[in-house]
Design goal:
Blueprint: E1 27-28, E2 31-32, E3 55-59, E4 65-69, H1 107-112, E5 117-122, H2 127-136, E6 140-144, H3 152-164, E7 169-172, H4 178-186, E8 191-194, H5 200-209, H6 236-243, E9 245-250, H7 253-257, H8 259-263, E10 270-273, H9 275-281, H10 291-319, E11 329-333, H11 340-345, E12 350-355, H12 356-380, H13 389-395
Parallel strand pairs: 5-6, 5-12, 6-7, 7-8, 8-9, 9-10, 10-11, 11-12
Antiparallel strand pairs: 1-2, 3-4
Length: 396
């Protein structure tokens, strides 16, 4: 009887009966890759049987390696690259080992690096306008479910459009609610904005809504929701809370009186000013540019920026870190009397310059005015002795 390393027919090692030739067979997504088996001869007995496992490797010019065992079907092809376009092919039942990176840099990392981010509020819940905003170059887009007509099912297509344009999305909730926060976080925004946060307790509740137990009250369905790539992203739980930008809006007289306590709540990343609601709370709903409203806003800005400076300095001294780290960032919304460049000059870290429907309203109104103005100018250039156009036509 021949040994286990021999081929039943020829009595020679099985490895000597296998000839492999690899060659380049085209391009896939612009990269030359792949190898094909040009010849593969296996000598077998009347009842085919591979007696000894053999490891076969095929290597292309790009160092792409395919490995398979001769005593089993291969179950995976792994094609390493710097930026893979597709997740690796896996056989059914194999455990996932993949982390998904949607954006090169998160909003929190850019803020920590000292950048001032410029954004847009999307009130229309239109995926088309969301995509245009992303392609136009905004650093972030706030999908507004507080004043906009849309809910979660309307926000989801907007997040997909923004993801396609590589633009981070922030979801503004209708109210500071654990139910709304859970549904919003499950569809995977980079940030979440809570309106009407009037006290430190409300701020702490907002943070709790964004954290899983035991640190918070967020409900868990992380194995199937979009935020975790429907369960394919193994690293989601390890980083989701660290990467999420939690924004609390200060937009009332009560909130203004406790601004520093709200800003000091652990987990509050951005204190977002709400100039319109603040003006209404102060009795100047029809006059948001009132001098008294502006004075209150300047004082609130000063206190938030002062707190961040103190906390950043303390953290840098204690840990030897960057002075830009620590403390809440300041976010705001530009107004006609307070343009975005002035907010940036005063130290705001996140500046929303416009609303999508406002931009369209302005452009549409200007377009109509331009036409009416041109129409009037054309009429003024006519001569008195000229007949009206319709009369001239019928007289011919």
């Amino acid at each position: 009887m021949r040994g286990p390393e021999s081929c039943p027919r020829e009595g020679r090692p099985l490895s000597n009966r296998i000839k492999l030739a690899a060659h380049r067979c085209g391009e896939w997504k612009g990269r030359t890759m792949a190898a094909s088996l040009s010849t593969m001869a296996l000598a077998t007995a009347a009842k085919p049987r591979l007696l000894a496992p053999q490891i076969l490797q095929i290597q292309s010019a790009r160092s792409t390696t395919l490995s398979l065992r001769s005593d089993q079907m291969f179950t995976a092809i792994s094609i390493p690259s710097r930026r893979p376009s597709l997740p690796p092919v896996r056989s059914a039942g194999s455990p996932p080992h993949q982390e998904y990176e949607t954006f090169p840099r998160s909003l929190k990392s850019r803020l920590a690096a000292g950048e001032t981010l410029y954004g847009l509020f999307l009130l229309s819940a239109s995926p088309t306008l969301a995509e245009i905003a992303g392609l136009a170059g905004y650093d972030y887009v706030v999908v507004d479910m507080e004043h906009g007509p849309g809910g979660i099912s309307d926000a989801l297509p907007c997040l997909r459009a923004l993801a396609a344009a590589r633009t981070p999305a922030v979801l503004r909730l209708p109210e500071p609610s654990a139910v709304w926060a859970k549904k919003a976080l499950d569809i995977g925004p980079q940030g979440i904005m809570f309106p009407m946060v009037d006290s430190p307790a409300a701020a702490a509740h907002a943070v709790s809504c964004c954290r899983f137990p035991p640190r918070g009250v967020r409900g868990s369905a992380h194995t199937v929701v979009r935020a975790s790539a429907y369960g394919l992203d193994d690293g989601y739980l390890a980083r989701c809370e660290e990467e999420l930008l939690v924004m609390c809006q200060v937009e009332s007289v009560d909130a203004a009186s406790e601004i520093e306590a709200i800003a000091a709540v652990e987990g509050v990343d951005v204190v977002q000013m709400g100039p319109l609601d603040l003006s209404g709370s102060m009795g100047y709903l029809w006059d948001p540019g009132n001098k008294k409203v502006r004075q209150v806003l300047r004082e609130l800005e000063r206190r938030v920026l002062g707190l961040k400076k103190r906390q950043s300095g303390a953290n840098a001294a204690a840990e030897g870190g960057s002075a830009s780290l620590g403390g809440p960032y300041l976010g705001g919304f530009a107004m006609p009397h307070d343009p975005p460049e002035e907010l940036k000059a005063r130290g705001y870290h996140m500046v929303a310059g416009a609303v999508d429907v406002g931009l369209f309203r302005q452009a549409a109104a200007e377009d109509v005015r331009r036409f009416r103005r041109a129409e009037a100018e054309i009429g003024e250039e006519g001569h008195e002795d000229e007949k009206p156009r319709d009369e001239s036509y019928w007289s011919e």
